[in-house]
Amino acid sequence: MDITKFVENSLGQWRSQRSSHNLALTYFEQVTSTIDIVPLAKDDSKVIDLCKSNEIDPQMVSHPFRMSWEGESDWDEGETFEGTTILVPVPEPDNPQAGRLLRDQGYAETIPAIGKYHFSEDGTFVLLTAYDRAAAEEKIWFVNPNLRMRVSLIKTSGGSGVLTASFSSEIRS
Amino acid sequence: MDITKFVENSLGQWRSQRSSHNLALTYFEQVTSTIDIVPLAKDDSKVIDLCKSNEIDPQMVSHPFRMSWEGESDWDEGETFEGTTILVPVPEPDNPQAGRLLRDQGYAETIPAIGKYHFSEDGTFVLLTAYDRAAAEEKIWFVNPNLRMRVSLIKTSGGSGVLTASFSSEIRS
After folding, report:
1. Which of A47, A123, B80, B119 has the fewest CB atoms inside 10 Å of its own CB, making it the most exposed?
2. Domain at B3-172: CATH architecture
3. Quick check: A26 and B19 CB within 8 A?
């Protein structure tokens, strides 16, 4: 697995069920959402801007994409939320299995972030992102071409404590 | 990672949050439970019996254990459930990273089962179990010594369709 194939497999519309576990308080949250993943051109101005603000040569970018979501949580009955983010993979020049992922906003905090990704032997995409006051570890893998699994951990910035563990099942619409 | 270290790391009492996703109907189920994992002797009569009924030489067994659980689901407010099962790993003689796992009853169906396990490069325990009318795929990994993650898929017996995906966060008590 490499980032080209992973992004291509991810394109499209997905119906997502997400469960979050607050580990300290044993709280559950349930979220249903629709996720759209669409490719962007390497010379899209937003991609270029994100490269510039991270001092990355736009020539090094591979398969940038936009992810948008719209859904609702059982914590806010009747209320919907939505969001969108641009993601720009920057593979290592000498290792197609690993690289950096630029985002114009993160999940855990609504600020830009640079994560480090790699693919494990079994094809799982593993993304580590350090924020100011927290760190996120995300694993994404395909069970089949129409079913994607995602496990996300939000840790304290030192990485010792896990605050939240969440799990998404994403079915291609 | 091998089965010796994995079982030793798993011994103790765990507080579990489990979320199940019914993928066809977009249902959620939330379960909280306490799980106890205790070692058994290789010459425990129940271990010997399970070997005999599976025509396994008891000398090939490594680190058998009992897993018990007690909890409640948000589908049955106020009702508790409990259960116990004996698990007997049988590593391959020439490959400590893989083997079979005997159980006197399964999760998906309350009948005895033999699963096949292996450890992936990153230390994840992967267990595949075929039942008469379904197949289960389970991944278990440690985030740290006191936090275990478990993702379970229940598939149609042909393996093509995934019926249920569930996720457990298990914290050492």
Report:
1. B80
2. Beta Barrel (2.40)
3. no
